[in-house]
Amino acid sequence: MRHPAFISALVAALALGACTGKDEETVDRTIKDLNVIDEANLNDVMLTVADADEAVNYFSRAVAGNPDRIDLRRGLAQSLVRSGRNTEAVAAWTRVAAMPGATASDKVDLADALIRTGSWSRAEKTLAAVPPTHETFKRYRLAAMVADANEEWDKADDFYETAIGLTTRPAGVMNNWGYSLLSRGDYARAERLFSDAIRQDASMFTAKNNLVMARGAQRNYALPVVPMSQTERAQLLHTMALSAVKQGDVKTGEGLLREAISTHPQHFEDAVRALRALETG
Which InterPro entries does this entry report, sorted A to Z (predicted)? Predict the structure, then answer.
């Protein structure tokens, strides 16, 4: 992928390539200047729209040639996270956070990578080292997750609430907070938060599924009135059926499974298998 300015400069550089001597030096300087001009754009492309593995390869080569460039090391660390190579990402972010010019955001990104590898204790220590003046959505979202892992419920609730106030797209953190409440057995509050998440993002199926689980835990087996496709409706009926069985309402569960099977536009193997298991005891 090349921008028009990049292509024009490249053509000019190649035109100079027919010369020799000092003109060759001019070509080298032109290409070097060209790289500097276009590098920022190319880095942005690699971080946003490029294939994650391609981005890792690109930034790995860039870091090998410029090991003291913190911006390139950040790009590598971010690309490793995108590609799911979280153990390598921890090492990359650790290096970035220790470099001159490292910021509080780098420490937060390190904590994020640590959480992805299950290193909760180290993530907590990393977040504790972030200055209190660094008040960002990501910092408080991660702090809420760490508090959840420590079963420090009051702290988790405070951090989730703060995080929601720091973003214009709170659906994801609302869903996470709701799931935290669901795991604690606070089903009514969890139900409200899942509903809020769906109002913010009607496409979030995870929140819809969690909402059904919260209702089922309260023995409310009516599907919520939320936007859903026919396939989603069948999947939610399946979830509701399993919740009913878990509560001991087996007959209700069987009925919900039959409804899920008839609702799904295709063969619904999971629901069929669950119904057969119930029917055979």
Answer: TPR-like_helical_dom_sf (IPR011990), TPR_rpt (IPR019734)
Instruction: Evaluate the CA torsion angle 102, 104, 108, 111 in order and state its sign.
Output: positive
Is the distance from CB of 256 to CB of 279 less than 8 angstroms? Answer: no
Over pLDDT 70: what percentage of the chain? 86
For residue 173, how far is the Cα from the chain centroid?
11
**What's the token pair of residue 221?**
């087996």
Could you read off the pLDDT of 82-95 as tens digits, one per residue?
Answer: 999 999 999 999 99
